Amino acid sequence: MENSLRYALSLALLGVASSSNAQSSVSLYGMIDAGLVYTNNSGGHSNYQLGNGLLSGPRWGLLGSEDLGSGLKAIFTLENGFNPSNGKMGQNAREFGRQAFVGISDSHFGTATLGRQYQSNFFALDSLAQGSLATHPYDNDNLGASIRLNNSVKYQSVNYAGFQFGGLYGFSNATGSFADSRAYDVSASYTNEGLTLASSYLQINNVGSTTNPNGSVVAGDSPFYAARQRTYGAGARYAFDASTVGIVFTQTQLGDATAIGSGYAGTSSNLRLAGNARFTNYELNGSHRFTPAWTLSGAYTFTDSHLNGEHPKYQQITLQAAYALSKRTLLIMQAAYEHVGNAGKSGITADISGVSSSSTSSQLVTEFGIHHSF
Question: Please, what is the average pLDDT of the chain?
Fold first, then answer.
């Protein structure tokens, strides 16, 4: 009798689980990479080290949805960033520092989410840039996803014949200081066959706020400390056969800037700023798939900056080769060379993303590693 009851209970529980799985799902996903990194000048010395984030930042996450009927779904994402070299959590030791949000998705009207999120312009423009070692100086336009926005409400439209748009508002969460570390953005993109176009605008008030620890972008969460950051940009890419070619333009304006922080998003400089600053980036990139396994990509970036009364001009060339061992595992080989001219007394030296800054105006970085997704 006892065995019969156990059997009946097991069948009942199995039926509940099957019914639940038919209506909802939770998926575990992630990616991890690591490799050998050589820098010809790291603080005045050549450097060999084990690095990570060669292709994209290591992470694991949970992605969930529940079907509510009539095209409506409840969704959530929890995503942790970590350092595989030492096992430590990233994003200032947050458990889910990359993303943590919940929301509603409608097949006709779009998706609304609330929590800690990427800004909407990241998804519109990021895919058009080379990324990784080619990240623009100090990730000044956030195409390298240095900044996530706390306390944010985001809307993303459905695809209307190739056209999509979105917007986000990040609350300051401060009583009596509505604008202290608040953020907002808008973005739009259009895709038609091989052509993709995108544009965006982002503004953050009191970016890197030291006066509001509960704000949208607080101290330690941004490469910059400034009263205001405005970033706008546009880009285009065309894919044909086994090749792509693209161009990206962005500009970041900093009002009453005080510093470029250190130790965030590969930024090694700890540079004091005085007054307004500006970074204007022009990137030309392309890729070609020689075989189903081999892909070569590259980018040239020119960055015209204005800070501390000087006009430093960055030029960087980045090359990347990827060999697919399988659908989920890649061997990565890449190199970048950067030269900064016209730096004057600004204190600027070459500073390629992900490594310590050079003691001179030039820097060379090479990387070889493995990338695995799951």
Answer: 90
Predicted TM-score of the model (pTM) = 0.90
Span of 21-30, 260-269, 324-333 with lowest mean pLDDT? 260-269
Which DSSP string corresponds to 87-102? Answer: --BSTTT-TT-SEEEE
Question: For residue 327, is it left (φ>0), alpha (ψ between -120 and 50) or beta?
Answer: alpha
Contacts of 143 (CB under 8 A, 6+ apart): 122, 125, 126, 129, 131, 135, 136, 233, 248, 250
Dig out the tokens for 81 from the structure: 């960033």
Question: Which H/E stretch holds residue 62?
Answer: strand 59-69
Please state the domain extents for the chain. 25-373
Main-chain dihedrals φ then ψ at residue 22, nearest 5 degrees: -70, -20
The label of the residue with tokens 């430590």 reads 88
Euclidean distance between CA atoms 258 and 274, whole angstroms:
6
DSSP 12-42: HHHHHHHHHHHHEEEEEEEEEEEEEEEEEEE
Kindly report, residue by residue over 168-192, the tens digit of the pLDDT: 999 999 988 888 999 999 999 999 9
CA distances, 345 to each of 252, 273, 341 (Å)? 21, 12, 12
CATH 3.90.25.10 for domain 25-373, yes or no, is: no
Write the pLDDT tens digit of every residue in 238-296: 999 999 999 999 999 999 999 887 655 445 566 788 899 999 999 999 999 999 999 99
Q: What are phi and psi of 101, to 5 degrees?
A: -150, 160
Token pair 């001219």: residue: 341
